[in-house]
C-alpha cells in the first residue's frame, strides 16, 4: 500500500471516536482482528497546553488489555512484530492458555514477544543452514509436478501464491501493537512504530527469504505437498546425518515460538471481550472475570485444535476469504480517511492495490474450492 507510514498515523489521528473490528483468520487458525485505536477528540483551545500523559486515552481504553499500558517503545514494537510475523502455521495450545492469566495487557508480554522473536529467527536459521550444510539428495528435481489438466496446474499456482500471501500475517495486529506505544501531540506514536516496522520486517525478510530459497534448492519438488512439511523433509533426508539433539532442539524452539505467538493473537480476542463487557457495565473487568475470559477462550481454542486437526488443509480457502481484510480494505480505508484528489498518484496506487487484493481473493477462493473438490478432504475428527 502506498505511503504505509501515513496509514499507521491514522490509528492515532482520527478526530472522531471510532471502533471497528475486522475478524481475520490466519493459516495458523488463530483469530486476529484489526482494531483502530480509539482516541479522544482533539483538545480544545484551553487544553492545548495540557500534557497528554502518554496518549490521553479514552477512559474505556484504559480498561482494555491492548491500550491499558502505553509504556511501549520501538524495541518492544519490533519484538511484537517479529514474533507475530514469523511462525510455523500450527495449532499448539495445550500450555498456552494456562499462562495467559498472568499478562494483563499486550505491553506486559513484550518479554514473551522477545522470546518468540529470538526463537523464530533461531529455528528459521537452523532449518535453512541444515538444508544447505547437509547437501541435496541425489535424485531431486526442480521441475513442477505433473498435472492431469490445466485447471489442476492453475489451482496449484494459485495455492502457492496464497501461501506466500498468508505467510506475511503479522501486520494484522499492527494497530494493536501501536496501541502499546505512548503518544502525544508533540511525539505521536507513529514515529516509533514506523521504526519498529522497518527493523522488524527487514529481519523477517532476512529469515523467510533464505528459508524459501535454501529449502527449494535442497529438496526441490520432494517437499511433501501436505501442510508445513519442510521439517519432515529435514528429518527424512538429513535425519541420519544430523544429531538427535539438533532435531529435538529445533522442535523445542518451534514449540516455544508457537506458545509466544499465541499470546499476541489471543490478546486481540481478549480486548474485544473486555470491550463488550466495559461497554455494558461502564467499569473495568475484575481479575476473576478476566481469568474466566482467558481460560474459556484457551479451552475453546484447544478443543478446536484437537477436534478439528484437518483445519490446516482449509488454510488456502480461509486465507483467500479473509485476504481482503489485510490487502484490500486498508487501501480503501486510507482513501476514505485521507481523501486524496481523485486520479492522483496516491489515489490510483491505493485503488489499484485494493482492487488487486479483491480480485486475488476471488481467484484464491475458486482455486482452493477446486482443489478440495478434486482431491477431497479427509475430515478426521479427533484424530490428529
Question: Could you list some keywords that capture this structure?
Answer:
2 strands; disordered N terminus; 384 residues; two-stranded antiparallel ribbon; 2% strand; symport; mainly alpha; AA_transpt_TM; single chain
Structure notes:
It is found in: Endomembrane system. It is a multi-pass membrane protein. The chain has 13 helices and 2 strands, in the order αββαααααααααααα. The longest helix is centred in the last third of the chain and has 38 residues. A hairpin with a 5-residue loop joins β1 and β2. The radius of gyration is 22 Å and the shape is globular. Helices cover 59% and strands 2% of the residues. It has one domain. The chain is mostly helical and 384 residues long. Strands 1-2 form a two-stranded antiparallel ribbon.
Oligomeric grouping of the chains: single chain
**How big is the Rg?**
22 Å
The low-confidence parts are 1-56, 87-101
If strands are numbered along the chain, what order do they take across the biggest sheet?
1-2
β-strand percent reads under 5%
DSSP helical segment count: 13
SSE ordering: HEEHHHHHHHHHHHH
Shape: globular
Number of strands: 2
Tell me about the largest β-sheet: 2 strands, antiparallel
Helix fraction bin: 55-70%
Indicate how many domains the architecture comprises. Answer: 1
Mean pLDDT metric: 73
Distance between the first and last residues' Cα: 39 Å
Which class of secondary structure composition applies to the elements? mainly alpha
Amino acid at each position: 500500500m502506498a505511503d504505509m507510514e501515513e496509514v499507521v498515523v491514522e490509528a492515532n489521528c482520527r478526530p472522531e471516536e471510532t471502533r471497528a473490528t475486522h475478524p481475520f483468520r490466519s493459516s495458523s487458525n488463530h483469530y486476529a482482528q484489526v482494531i483502530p485505536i480509539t482516541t479522544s477528540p482533539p483538545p480544545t483551545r484551553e487544553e492545548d497546553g495540557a500534557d497528554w500523559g502518554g496518549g490521553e486515552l479514552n477512559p474505556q481504553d484504559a480498561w482494555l488489555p491492548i491500550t491499558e499500558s502505553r509504556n511501549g517503545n520501538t524495541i518492544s514494537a519490533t519484538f511484537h512484530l517479529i514474533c507475530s510475523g514469523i511462525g510455523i502455521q500450527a495449532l499448539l495450545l495445550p500450555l498456552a492458555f494456562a499462562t495467559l492469566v498472568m499478562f494483563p495487557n499486550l505491553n506486559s508480554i513484550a518479554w514473551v514477544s522477545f522470546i518468540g522473536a529470538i526463537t523464530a529467527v533461531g529455528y528459521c536459521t537452523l532449518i535453512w543452514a541444515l538444508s544447505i550444510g547437509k547437501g541435496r539428495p541425489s535424485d531431486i528435481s526442480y521441475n513442477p509436478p505433473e498435472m492431469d489438466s490445466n485447471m489442476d496446474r492453475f489451482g496449484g499456482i494459485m495455492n502457492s501464491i496464497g501461501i506466500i500471501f498468508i505467510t506475511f500475517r503479522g501486520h494484522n495486529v499492527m494497530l494493536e501493537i501501536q496501541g502499546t506505544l505512548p503518544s502525544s501531540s508533540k511525539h505521536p506514536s507513529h514515529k516509533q512504530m514506523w521504526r519498529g516496522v522497518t527493523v522488524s520486517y527487514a529481519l523477517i525478510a532476512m529469515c523467510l527469504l533464505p528459508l524459501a530459497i535454501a529449502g527449494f534448492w535442497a529438496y526441490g519438488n520432494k517437499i511433501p505437498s501436505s501442510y508445513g512439511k519442510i521439517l519432515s523433509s529435514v528429518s527424512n533426508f538429513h535425519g541420519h546425518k544430523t544429531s538427535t539433539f539438533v532435531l529435538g532442539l529445533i522442535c523445542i524452539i518451534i514449540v516455544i515460538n508457537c506458545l509466544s505467538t499465541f499470546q499476541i493473537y489471543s490478546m486481540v480476542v481478549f480486548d474485544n471481550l473486555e470491550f463488550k463487557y466495559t461497554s455494558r457495565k461502564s467499569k473495568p473487568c475484575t481479575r476473576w472475570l478476566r481469568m474466566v475470559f482467558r481460560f474459556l477462550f484457551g479451552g475453546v481454542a484447544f478443543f478446536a485444535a484437537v477436534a478439528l486437526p484437518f483445519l490446516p488443509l482449509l488454510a488456502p480457502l480461509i486465507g483467500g476469504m479473509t485476504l481482503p481484510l489485510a490487502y484490500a480494505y486498508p487501501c480503501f480505508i486510507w482513501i476514505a480517511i485521507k481523501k486524496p484528489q481523485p486520479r492522483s498518484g496516491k489515489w490510483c496506487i491505493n485503488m489499484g492495490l485494493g482492487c488487486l487484493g479483491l480480485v486475488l481473493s476471488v481467484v484464491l477462493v475458486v482455486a482452493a474450492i477446486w482443489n478440495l473438490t478434486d482431491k477431497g478432504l479427509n475430515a478426521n475428527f479427533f484424530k490428529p
